[in-house]
Amino acid sequence: MMLIDNERQFVDSVASVLQGHNSSKVVYSHVNLATKGFENVWRVWWSGELPPKLEVDLIFAFEDIYREIDEALLVGVEVKYFKLDKRGRIALNFYEGLQQALAYTLFGFDGVSLWHVFHSDLS
Q1: Is the pTM of this model over 0.85?
Q2: Cα 110 versus chain centre, distance
Q3: Most CB contacts within 10 A, which of 25, 34, 77, 82?
Q4: Nearest to 28 by CA among 49, 42, 46
């Protein structure tokens, strides 16, 4: 079993497991909404200028089988990884990531989620 030691490893692991899974069309990880690489994705779904710099940890695109909204449902996920610091305390607050997750709603996501992930040393 692979020990995950930080947020980036966790996000990469989730993305690799879920990529190509039947329930999702596409899984993107570590998407900076201000980069050239995201420009094409943005233009396919929305018109207008790119949003300011904001990195979305995971983006899931699901088929909207009932076509109630459009052809796909986009869900943005913000991940915060909690572990002990050098003093033996948790370095983050319980509300970490809430502001960033709420900011995703400004960019056309159909849903947003905040995942708090805890290192295995925490019990």
Answers
A1: no
A2: 13
A3: 77
A4: 42
CA distances from 82 to 8, 29, 37 (A): 12, 19, 29
User: Residue length, the chain?
Assistant: 123
Q: What is the largest CA-CA distance in the chain?
A: 51
43 vs 108, more confident: 108
Q: pLDDT tens for residues 96-106?
A: 889 889 888 87
pLDDT the model gives residue 10: 92
Residue 111's CB: how many other CB atoms inside 10 A?
Answer: 13
Residue 72, classed as helix, strand or coil, is: strand
Chain centroid, CA 122 distance in Å = 23
